Backbone:
């Protein structure tokens, strides 16, 4: 299984990756890093395909889907606690101050903690929206190469 084919991306994929990064098929400067990353992912996908094909011929109980999930698990989103730990100190101070001002505006009938929970929830909702849009998943499968 190891030396059946070299794990080298076809020139068309290298041109596509370069075009995706810089809008040109010429790979200047920093594009090399992006192309290397894409090439590593492509190579890993080819290795995974070879593993799946090999295992499919074995008398094992694993399925192709189970192997794929084991080798390419979905990224785990951060917990609320992890996100809150990333909140800058100035934002924490501003939230505390805003919660106190809101509590004072109610004549103290609503404690600052209630306002703070609302502010934290809003910040977490925003962070999750950002992650959903740009942060997760970072890995996008590369199309499989066809061997002619």
Residues:
């Amino acid at each position: 299984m190891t030396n059946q084919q070299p794990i080298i991306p076809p020139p068309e994929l290298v041109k596509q990756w370069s075009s995706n990064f810089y809008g040109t098929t010429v790979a200047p400067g920093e594009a090399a890093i992006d192309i290397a990353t894409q090439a590593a992912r492509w190579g890993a996908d080819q290795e995974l395909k070879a593993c799946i094909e090999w295992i499919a011929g074995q008398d094992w109980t694993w399925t192709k889907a189970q192997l794929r999930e084991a080798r390419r698990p979905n990224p785990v989103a951060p917990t609320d606690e992890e996100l809150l730990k990333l909140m800058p100190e100035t934002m924490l101070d501003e939230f505390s101050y805003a919660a106190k001002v809101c509590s004072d505006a109610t004549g103290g009938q609503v404690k600052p903690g209630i306002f703070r929970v609302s502010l934290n929830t809003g910040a977490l909702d925003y962070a999750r929206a950002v992650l959903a849009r740009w942060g997760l998943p970072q890995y996008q499968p590369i199309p499989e190469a066809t061997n002619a």
